[in-house]
Amino acid sequence: MTQNTSAPHVSAVRAPGPPAASGRPDTSTPRTSGPRTTPSRAVSAAIVVLLLGVLLVFFVLPVIWLLLAPSKTANQIVHDNPLSFGSFQQIGAAWRHLFAFQDGAVLVWLRNSAIYSVGSLVLTLLTSLPAGYALALTRFRGRKTLLICTLVTMIMPSATLVLPIFLELNRFHLIGTVWSVILPFAFYPFGVYLVYIYFATSLPRDLLSAARIDGCSEWQLFTKIALPLAKPVVGLVAFFSFVGNWNNFFLPYLVLPNSDQFPIQVGLNQLLTSTPSFNPVAGAGLNITIPELSLAIIVAILPVLVLFLFSQRTLVSGMLAGSTKE
Amino acid sequence: MTLATQRIAVPRRRAATPRRRAGGAAGYLFVAGYTVLLLAFGVFPTCYAFYLAYTNEAGSFTGLNQFTKVAADPRFGPAFSHVLLYLVLWLVALVVLTVLVAVVLRSRVRASVSALFRFLYYLPGALAGVASVLVWLFMLDPDVSPVSWLLKAMGLDTFAAVLAPGDLPVIFMLIAFWTGAGGWMVVMYGALNNIPDEVLEAARMDGAGPWRTAWHIQIPMIRQWIAYMTILAFAGGTQLFVEPQLLQTASLGRVSPAWSPNQLAYVYAFQQGDFNGAAAISVFLLALGLLCAGLLVWRSNMFTLDEK
Hints:
The complex is a heterodimer.
Chain A: H1 39-68, H2 74-79, H3 88-100, H4 105-137, H5 143-155, H6 162-171, H7 179-186, H8 189-202, H9 205-213, H10 218-229, H11 231-246, H12 250-255, H13 264-273, H14 290-310, H15 312-320
Chain B: H1 24-53, H2 65-72, H3 76-107, H4 111-122, H5 130-139, H6 148-153, H7 159-162, H8 168-193, H9 197-205, H10 210-221, H11 223-238, H12 242-250, H13 261-270, H14 275-299
Helix pairs in contact in B: 1-14, 2-14, 3-8, 3-11, 4-8, 5-12, 9-10, 11-14, 13-14
């Protein structure tokens, strides 16, 4: 693909120099002011355009290709223009082939993903909201230790603990149960940290002290004062927890042996092994080719993609409050 | 979309608050559920992995034998060096490009354009995990790739040629960059936004152009964020599993099933049934993860906890 994607953006590049907003004449610097576009300025602008343009292609092109792939036959994908649209009939055919795979296995996987992600999300909220609140606004012995453990486990990549968790679950014969996924997913230190930061910075302590003097119990303080104020942080924790669990592959891959328990991520791996172009041995008569696999990827990421599009702002503020964990 | 990076800090207790333990007993009840999860899926698995690594199948203490056994495995050294090479590529690309792009988007481009670009660069983050690996399998397969001309120009005519062992660190770097860099660009942009305008104005008055301002003022002022990103990305990168595992599937066994340390631990547990050996490899990785976390919690002021 050799489209010049950078052309439309040239006008967007601001000429370096005094920003238009500061209406002062530029008399401060004794530079030899040449014409408005000295060679170095042109070079500098060209670097900016090139950098942004190349990265734009890099980030966006695969997404566009993916969205177009299910509309073509496997043959068209190889021979037609990679960025052409095939036909809606073809999307329908890919859809039928995909959902016919192992008698609708894809639907089962999607349902499993939903159960695991939502189930652990509920548990995450039930545990992290009170915990974050208590860490921020009450004092008890061991609080500091709990906070440090939370920070450390939050910064450690979650994959680090997957194999140890597998060994532990195996020891207690919990492999292959729904709980072997939901419970580890429900443990979400980053969520606790977000709630803790939120309550520590946005709930005035004097308000709580006053309520305590008025005879409110701690439980009433939490449910009547803290929770109603916690909506933004609930959204944030819910988003990160759901996306992280929906996209998680490593843990379910280890602890769920049966196909009918797979979440969609592990299911995609199964589909990959059934695609003739990647696995000639398994592919005979399965109808899972590149368009079907692409469609499966789109279906698998759809919930997350929708969330991404609708919660941009929330997301960004959350990333800045402690950054995301991979 | 306006962004404001908040410093990750927790307000110090005001002197006015009474020093009695407010809600002490209730505090225990509030944290009980989370503490159980933390013990069950944070502390216990860590301890259990250590226990397994120091014992044998019969449960008797074997000292460092498990560690020496796995370290002597001919796949052990290569697995770590593969990941190390990948990490070098990934961290260099990440640091150089995210900082450069954040600087450019912050001071060289109109605000609306900048917001659009940040969003588009961030979008592939939605495809994290398996989906991103599958997408890149297509992107790197010369038969179907939209940039097959580019692959062919590099002398990569077949999918097998693309998957040559030496290329894998580059491939994983591309995947990691595609799904992760956009998010970090947003973070860096937010950090740059935090620099007071007066500082930049002063630099301009002294005659510094935009690049010099970036190099001497903006980048030093967000150094802490860059360190934070590097450590987190490093810790995450040591754990590589999904990408090589799927590539191994797609390459019909041309890629080693024990390409990364986590895969080697997986092979130990699932193919050799050697849980103690698997735990020993896990402990190596755990130590790395703990080291990074400790470094951030104790050596940086990213996480200032309130003094008690």
